[in-house]
Amino acid sequence: MKFRFGIVGAVLLTALLASAQKVETDYDHQYDFSRLHTFTVKFGSVWNNPLQQERAKEDIVRQLEAKGWTPAPDDASADAVVVIHGATQNEKSLDTWYSGGGWGWGPGMATTTVNTVRVGTMVVDVFDAKTKKLVFRGKASDDISDKPEKNAKKIDKAVEKMFKDFPPKPKNG
After folding, report:
1. pTM value > 0.85
2. Per-residue pLDDT tens over the stretch 54-93
3. Over the stretch 119-144, which tens digit does the pLDDT of each residue have?
4. 119 with 89: CB under 8 angstroms?
5. Does domain 21-162 have CATH number 3.30.160.670?
């Protein structure tokens, strides 16, 4: 019985860790996004990996085109300016493993290890090109893999989640 609960717990923990990607969006609830039809994309910061940076841009362009938006040749002819920011940082995590009885069922032991994890964060801002007003912000963060193809998939998934309900409908009143 205890063994089955252990397996179920391990499967749930693995599922939670596998979905560690965090994506958040916010927008101006009064803004009328139906005014925006064309866009340009810029980088607000230079990433450590220009290849991943370009992949992120391609993913964003693909999502916006799927929503009916058209890339504009320059800022002057665009309705919206999309700015991509990217950053990485090291975060510490504590992992504690229990062995033996513990929890009141006999002697047990706990071992805690400190791990350093590289986390990447991407922020996508959409500005009204005419007023220069920020109208939408998407933010995604996830652990960075040593394998570029995994990171490319994570970026693609993050952008897909970010623009799932885009453009948002105004919430008047």
Report:
1. no
2. 999 999 999 999 999 999 998 889 999 999 998 888 888 7
3. 889 999 999 999 999 999 999 999 98
4. yes
5. yes
